[in-house]
Amino acid sequence: MSDTKTNERPLVEVKHLKEYFPINVGLFRSKPLKAVDDVSFSIRKGETLGLVGESGCGKTTVGRTILNLYKPTSGEIWYDGKLIKTKADIEEFRTKATMVFQDPYSSLNPRMTVEDIIGEPLDVHKMYKTKEERHERILELMGHVGLNSEHAARYAHEFSGGQRQRIGIARSLAVNPEFIVCDEPVSALDVSIQAQVINMFDELQEKLGLTYLFIAHDLLVVRHISDRIAVMYLGKMVELADANEIYSHPLHPYSKSLMSAVPVPDPKIARANQRIVLSGDIPSPLNAPSGCPFRTRCQYATPACAEAMPDFKEVSKNHFVACHRVAEINQ
Ligand SMILES: Nc1ncnc2c1ncn2[C@@H]1O[C@H](COP(=O)(O)OP(=O)(O)O)[C@@H](O)[C@H]1O
Ligand code: SF4
Ligand SMILES: [Mg+2]
């Protein structure tokens, strides 16, 4: 998180993004699984937008669809003021935007050396003239993520989870990206090393001027790195605000329950913050409730909540919420 960015124009703009997967429900019948259903947001240059929500709510699909790894069902992605539309746009965009994956064990080929893993994108994009230049660049990238040069000739399987994640990040940095979708990059790591890796993301952002969409299901993970935080539920965005604001004043009933689960170090505050435990499971996106997607688990639901999806409205400056009853609930 850096402080120099607040008024800059958006680098990434996502407008009414939908990603529906056709699922076979009979021999000749398919039904759309609405993994992402009309999501809009933007990310400023140099900013980190945290994206949180329970497993299956559509976070990874948002990240992959922004990068055009999935073709959007509908909606638009704008980058640096330009609509990404044609094949040429997508190809150019791929040199500026990339993804860091969740699982450092399955995303790297264990039989390749570190040098070859990091060098692969350099080869694909023909980013060097001589072997020497390639090697120098690989060592530079390894330096960025805190790996030393002796590691270059070793194989991925010889490394711990945290170090593998560093190798994966160095590989993602090889193309000199401006924007990185970080898809739960520390969830598979030991809690003891999560903070180190998050700090590294923070330092890299400062050093290289990066912009992040930082996905996590754990709120503690995104709290320190995010400038703003977006909360998703069942393919929809339900709340978006500055990180401090959403921690201190969550307005949507779902965000309130997520925040109440975050451990607070001060016992006095912890006692005052009653834990809100949600009943029931998250419904399947194949059979999403009508109207507000959260209504089957919401203690404030009324029959009107089943009628229509609430608009995603700005209820105070830069604080957006999708709930019909947001004013009454937060009196
Ligand atoms: N390629 C796919 N084909 C069909 N369904 C998918 C695909 N990818 C994700 N889904 C479904 O879309 C929903 C959202 O998934 P995902 O974006 O992975 O959620 P999250 O990252 O928040 O856990 C889930 O119900 C998941 O099963
Ligand atoms: S719209 Fe209704 S069901 Fe949905 S969060 Fe608000 S009060 Fe709960
Ligand atoms: Mg995911």
Global geometry: globular
CATH superfamily heading of the domain at 10-96 and 177-249: P-loop containing nucleotide triphosphate hydrolases
**Share in helix:** 25-40%
- Main sheet, how many strands, which sense, barrel? 8 strands, mixed
How many beta-strand elements? 12
Q: How do the strands line up in the largest sheet?
A: 6-7-8-3-9-10-12-11
What is the top-level CATH class of the domain at 10-96 and 177-249? Alpha Beta
Oligomerization state: single chain
Q: Tell me what portion of residues adopts beta-strand conformation.
A: 15-25%
Mean pLDDT across the residues is 91
Question: What does this protein structure show overall?
Answer:
The chain has a domain at 10-96 and 177-249: P-loop containing nucleotide triphosphate hydrolases (Rossmann fold), CATH 3.40.50.300. The protein is α/β, with parallel strands linked by helices and 331 residues long. Residues 2-6 have low confidence and may be disordered. It has 11 helices and 12 strands. The protein is globular. A hairpin with a 5-residue loop joins β1 (10-24) and β2. An 8-stranded mixed β-sheet has the order 6-7-8-3-9-10-12-11, with helices on both faces. A 4-stranded antiparallel β-sheet has the order 2-1-4-5. Helix content is 31%, strand content 24%. α4 (131-144) crosses α5. It has helices at residues 59-66, 87-94, 114-124, 131-144, 161-173, 191-208, 219-225, 243-248, 253-260, 267-272, 326-329; strands at residues 10-24, 30-44, 48-52, 74-79, 82-83, 97-100, 179-183, 211-216, 228-233, 236-242, 313-316, 319-321. It binds adenosine-5'-diphosphate, iron/sulfur cluster and magnesium ion (MG). Residues 253, 292, 294-295, 298, 300-301, 305, 310, 323-325 line the site of iron/sulfur cluster.
